[in-house]
């Protein structure tokens, strides 16, 4: 049975009209069952822990990339037989990655149950599918230390660290995780030469931070990041000072337009 | 050769997919890879690759490099071994040994080296 998850605190709002439309479209394809609302990662984790394999074979997140990443992050709680689907409300990098161009396209893929098996990697106790960005506090003067499984130790200034799963790239099978580090353009620098309205927009829009330049590209199988400051990802999760990446790879069954298997 | 901006940062548009350690980075240990390696920061240790290695203008390297080709634009106190070629730019400073069948040195380079051009 299919179960659909909706984050009531999502940045992408699903109003009554859209909710109804979705239910109708799913009913048409005979894959409508239950919509489950949750309000945060903790509640989602509890829902996943209580799911029974006998009553759920497909779990679908309706929302945006952040919502889907919340589900991927908690897939450690899921039985490995349960397929994971995504019904993106708007176009995004993950919808592109899964080959889903619009809502109808996603619903068709869900009903056809085209499944692809993907290796996901862990970041501390959470998992990620394609990419995760960690924002370290730039006001912290102490350097971040990145250590690879081969014993290479790298000290970098506080910045944004982007961790990518390159598992699909056969060239890099021995070192499937890529780390990139970016310096951010300082807020002061950005505000220079900006109109009052532009400054106002910047103040209320954290995504307006601009990546100034790439300072590191590195591939490895496992990494450890140690920092005196905490890091935050795009979903707002906070990570402690010692972060392990890639230690526990896990396979998930993902519903995608480009499938390996069909069940 | 990789082009950096004034602040020593690489542009993503370059489409470079090898290993890159920028000018603000300090690293130590060993790098063993099949890819190209570009270092513009401080590195202590060994680099072993089937690809090319470039030591940028802002870099300081202590250790050893074994690669297909090596370009030195910064400072290297190291043993360099390349199957194809070693090039030391005019702004390069090298102490140690260099071994490759093709060695080229630009005017202005500062060297204290033992050079070998035997087949490697």
Description:
- The complex is a heterodimer of chains A (263) and B (120).
- Chain A has helices spanning 16-28, 41-50, 65-73, 93-97, 103-112, 187-191, 196-204, and strands at residues 2-7, 34-38, 58-63, 83-88, 114-123, 126-128, 131-136, 144-148, 153-156, 160-165, 177-184, 211-220, 223-226, 231-232, 238-239, 242-245, 250-255, 261-262.
- By secondary structure, chain A is an alpha+beta fold.
- Chain A has two domains: 2-123 and 251-262, 3-Layer(aba) Sandwich (Rossmann fold), CATH 3.40.50; 126-249, Tumour Suppressor Smad4 (Sandwich), CATH 2.60.200.
- In chain A, the strands form three sheets. In chain A, strands 1, 2, 3, 4, 5, 6, 17 and 18 form an eight-stranded mixed beta sheet that branches. In chain A, strands 12-11-10-7-14-15 form a six-stranded antiparallel beta sheet, with no helix packed on it.
- The longest helix of chain A is centred in the N-terminal third of the chain and has 13 residues, at 16-28.
- With 120 residues, chain B is an all-beta fold.
- Helix content of chain B is 0%, strand content 58%.
- Chain B has no helices and ten strands.
- In chain B, strands 1, 2, 3, 4, 5, 6, 7, 8, 9 and 10 form a ten-stranded parallel beta sheet that branches.
- The relative contact order of chain B is 0.14.
- The chains are: A alpha+beta (263), B mainly beta (120).
- Chain A binds chain B through residues 143, 148, 150-157, 175, 183, 212-219, and chain B through 5, 7-12, 16-33, 35, 45.
Give a short summary of the structure:
The complex is a heterodimer of chains A (263) and B (120). Chain A folds into two domains: 2-123 and 251-262, 3-Layer(aba) Sandwich (Rossmann fold); 126-249, Sandwich (Tumour Suppressor Smad4). Helices cover 23% and strands 36% of the residues of chain A.
Descriptive keywords:
heterodimer, A: 263 residues, alpha+beta, Rossmann fold, Tumour Suppressor Smad4, 2 domains, eight-stranded mixed β-sheet, six-stranded antiparallel β-sheet, 7 helices, 18 strands, B: 120 residues, mainly beta, ten-stranded parallel β-sheet, 0% helix
